[in-house]
Amino acid sequence: MIAGRAVLIKLPRDKCDVDYIKRLMALTNLVYRGYEVWVPDMPRTIEHQLYGFRDFKESLVFGVTPKRWFARTWMPLKTLRVYGDGSMKGDRKAPVVLDFRGSVIRLRQVCKNESGYSIELPMPSWVVDRIREGGDVRFAMIGLRDNEPYLALVAERVVEPYVPSGYRLVVDVNVWSNGVAYGIVNPSNRIAEYSPLRPNLRLIDTWYHKAEKLSKELGKLKRLGLGSTPGAKRLWREIKALRRKVYAYLRDFAQKRVHELVMKALRLRAEVLIDDMIEESRRELIEEKIPRGLRKVYLAETRRFVKLLTTQLRWYGVPYEFKRLPSTICPVCHHKLTQEEGRIMVCENCGFKAPRDKVPMHWAVRL
Fold first, then answer.
1. 58 occurs within a structural domain
2. How many CB atoms lie under 10 A from the CB of residue 277?
3. What is the residue range of 195's domain?
4. Going by C-beta distance under 8 Å and a sequence separation of 6 or more, which residues neighbour residue 159?
5. Are 8 and 150 in contact (CB under 8 A)?
6. How far apart (Å, rounded) are the C-alpha atoms in residues 131 and 216?
7. What is the pLDDT of residues 167-217, one digit of tens each?
């Protein structure tokens, strides 16, 4: 099985021509649709690189085929890897050079339409770590995200899932207000460890409400026709900074918790069961009448959490499956559970009682 992981590297805007990258993305879009277009004022080496990927349209590098309407499509690029002992691997004419001797990445002809133009970037430790784990960064992609230039490096490795030792790691994915709960079921079919993983909700709520308060002040200025004043612009910058802070915090939290869970599974050689109940949690937020903006914050990065988790599980050869482990049905007698204060679930039929997020662990025991 070929497993892959990718990392995004922001490129310096002053060294990259955004309009040129847009043209590369447009050309890639045409290749998706089966067209072959040779642009006179574009380097032939770059166009040859692109058309060399035509047989890999469904690969990890290309990803999802664009819809019928015009879509921005990142341009796939081959890489040349230069190792510390001087050995090389890959296409000598590749636009992306990973130089492990100097710990730099060189991009040739993909940032500006100038003959011989290249830029250098520091080598991320992520690349070195993937190489140490037996991976190889054969491909890269260049494109725009929020109109900012980025380079994506794609690492691949051949891995076979290990035979589980009898341990099971159960991951119950909810929105952040409830947290992501995990439990470890040992070979004796007992819950050996259980813990909810929650971000600092008080900090998130503080940032969110402060941004909302500033948004109302900005709205008042706009209604008075003062939306272009320095004060209004300052408020808008503060609002954007607060919102970025919220999403950056949640993104960092998701990445760290995923890594911790995967390392636990590796250490125990456990099979992973994932109960992805994000939609059910979203409906719960609506029923609790949580403001729409705060619901969006609590849902942020949850889908990415699942994507990161499955990607890293495949990379390390950890066997996993998605399993429905209901938190509102009694795992003992299968009657409907009643929720009490503090998200405690109680079965009026058999007397079973447990925190709502721990109920899926009891289901895993009985599987």
1. yes
2. 20
3. 168-199+250-324
4. 1, 2, 3, 134, 314, 315, 316, 317
5. yes
6. 50
7. 999 999 888 888 889 999 999 999 999 999 999 989 999 999 999 999 999
